[in-house]
């Protein structure tokens, strides 16, 4: 397409964008929800934040002009603007730890068709004279398996870009985009920018290191034969994990939940000790396990270990641990304890 026909291409793209806007918006929401679902429950990976955006029509045209127009027209190559834009729909996945990125990227690659991939981290590390945000960019589209499903058929022609970053990388990206004249800064200022970028990189490493060291601490605590001085030892996440691991060895007490749960217990009884919780587990675990089995068989409801422990503590001392349970849950447990039933409409 000759250069003088850019206006035709521009007009055609704007018409295509307007006609497909409802589908583009639907595709954005669908891809975001699908990715959120796919990344839920990955073992050892806290659920990332998933964000989305639809690129404005004017932004699309400007990007095409900046990256592709000159080269295509110098070669007298015919083009349609939409065919050169894989990021009209953009998804951002923000991970808690840098070590999570590889797992998340692998999950995305195995569930979508990969068009292209750019590893910003490798690019940055390969050149000493550059600074900027890191992360991985994937250009994706629906795979053949999903395209044939009724709910996805109308979206098959819309590729999308996924940016996978850590929280620190995402924060640096926001700052980096606001820094003016980065390439032309005098050396002292440029050095300060490098230092700032280095701090964000160091933060990522420290986050991962802290997680690894904490995990080692938890494992060491679980493997200990004794608590030390359990009668006087206040309840904390480490001795709590050691205790409940013995009762629920196959359950993953996620690191982002366990501290909040222990805080809930300490809030209702601030001086609670590990031995107090251990006694409750010894004396009431089996009875609550019977209640759990009854709930599964009679009303089709399971009690996860966190909920079971709430029931165990409440049953061990319904005064001290009263606030750990909702009123209906307490009434149901008390009634089942007496006559083996609960409210039918619960």
Automatic annotation (TrEMBL):
Stored Gene3D superfamilies: Beta Polymerase, domain 2, Nucleotidyltransferase
Matches recorded under CDD domains: NT_Rel-Spo_like (cd05399)
Record InterPro entries: NT_sf (IPR043519), RelA_SpoT (IPR007685)
Recorded superkingdom: Bacteria
RelA/SpoT domain: residues covered: 52-187
UniProt name for this protein: GTP pyrophosphokinase family protein
Organism, scientific name: Marinicella sediminis
């Amino acid at each position: 397409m000759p250069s003088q026909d850019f206006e035709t291409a521009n007009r055609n793209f704007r018409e295509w964008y307007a006609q497909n806007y409802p589908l583009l918006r639907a595709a954005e929401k669908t891809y975001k929800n699908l990715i959120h679902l796919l990344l839920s429950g990955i073992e050892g990976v806290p659920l990332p934040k998933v964000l989305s955006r639809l690129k404005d029509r004017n932004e699309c045209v400007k990007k095409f002009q900046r990256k592709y127009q000159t080269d295509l027209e110098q070669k007298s190559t015919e083009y349609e603007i939409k065919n050169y834009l894989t990021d009209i729909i953009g998804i951002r996945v923000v991970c808690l730890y840098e070590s999570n990125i590889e797992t998340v990227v692998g999950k995305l690659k195995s569930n979508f068709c990969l068009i292209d991939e750019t590893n910003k981290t490798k690019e940055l590390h390969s050149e000493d004279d550059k600074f900027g945000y890191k992360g991985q960019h994937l250009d994706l589209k629906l795979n053949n398996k999903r395209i044939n499903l009724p709910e996805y058929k109308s979206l098959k022609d819309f590729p999308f870009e996924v940016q996978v970053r850590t929280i620190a990388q995402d924060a640096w990206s926001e700052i980096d985009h606001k820094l003016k004249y980065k390439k032309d800064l005098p050396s002292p200022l440029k050095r300060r920018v490098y230092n700032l970028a280095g701090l964000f990189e160091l933060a990522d490493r420290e986050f991962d290191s802290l997680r690894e060291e904490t995990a080692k601490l938890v494992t060491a605590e679980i493997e200990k034969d004794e608590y030390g001085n359990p009668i006087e030892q206040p309840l904390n996440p480490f001795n709590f994990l050691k205790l409940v691991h013995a009762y629920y060895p196959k359950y993953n007490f996620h690191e982002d939940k366990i501290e909040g749960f222990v805080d809930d217990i300490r809030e209702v009884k601030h001086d609670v000790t590990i031995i107090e919780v251990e006694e409750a587990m010894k004396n009431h675990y089996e009875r609550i396990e019977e209640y759990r089995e009854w709930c599964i068989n009679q009303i089709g409801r399971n009690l996860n270990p966190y909920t079971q422990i709430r029931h165990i503590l409440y049953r061990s001392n319904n005064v001290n641990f009263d606030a750990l349970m909702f009123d209906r849950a307490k009434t149901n447990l008390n009634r089942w304890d007496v006559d083996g039933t609960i409210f039918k409409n619960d």
